[in-house]
Amino acid sequence: VFALHLVAILLSVAVAGHSQIRRVPAAQVVVVVVEGVVYCQNCSFRGTWSLESAATVAAARVGVTCLGRKNQVPPLFHFLINSSKVIIRRTASTDAAGFYAAGDFYKGDPARACYVRLLASPEAACDDPTNINYGFKGAALKDEGKRATAGLHDIMIYSAGPLAFQPASCASMQ
Question: Quick check: 61 pLDDT over 90?
Fold first, then answer.
């Protein structure tokens, strides 16, 4: 499943007109892929960070945001400049197993500059975002040492802790 997500991300990055990226030395710019899983927290554990008995959420949307200094990113992203920071945003939807992957070219330390937030759940019975692993405020990325190469690009794969929505009301579900 991950391999299919990675191929789709690389194709979308390559097709999206990133030809200017090639002017930056390959050692300075990598493709960063962020992966994770989204759950619906069981009502029995509401108010905790427990995901025991949680179900995955298909078609949930998450947002990946990366911040960086103007001189730390490829020229293609300079149109996103806001003061001295550049903001790179990508959204991803989870697959049938609740897994998501989003990626783009980036220069810098994604573990320090990027985060993931819950955006939307398609399940009306479970669409209240929780702050489990800071999914509401912004979950930090973890470098688990996963690396790959595609063509001339190095790929660094980061993960965010599992994120979760919860039912807005549990009274009818218990």
Answer: yes
CA 76 → CA 4, 55, 70, 104, 129, distances in Å? 26, 39, 11, 12, 33
Per-residue pLDDT tens digits for 106-137? 877 888 889 999 999 999 999 999 999 999 89
Q: Is residue 173, in this structure, part of any structural domain at all?
A: no
Total domains, the chain: 1
d(CA 152, CA 106): 14
The pTM is what?
A: 0.77
Residue 158: which domain range? 29-166
Parallel/antiparallel/unpaired status of strands 61-69 and 81-82: unpaired
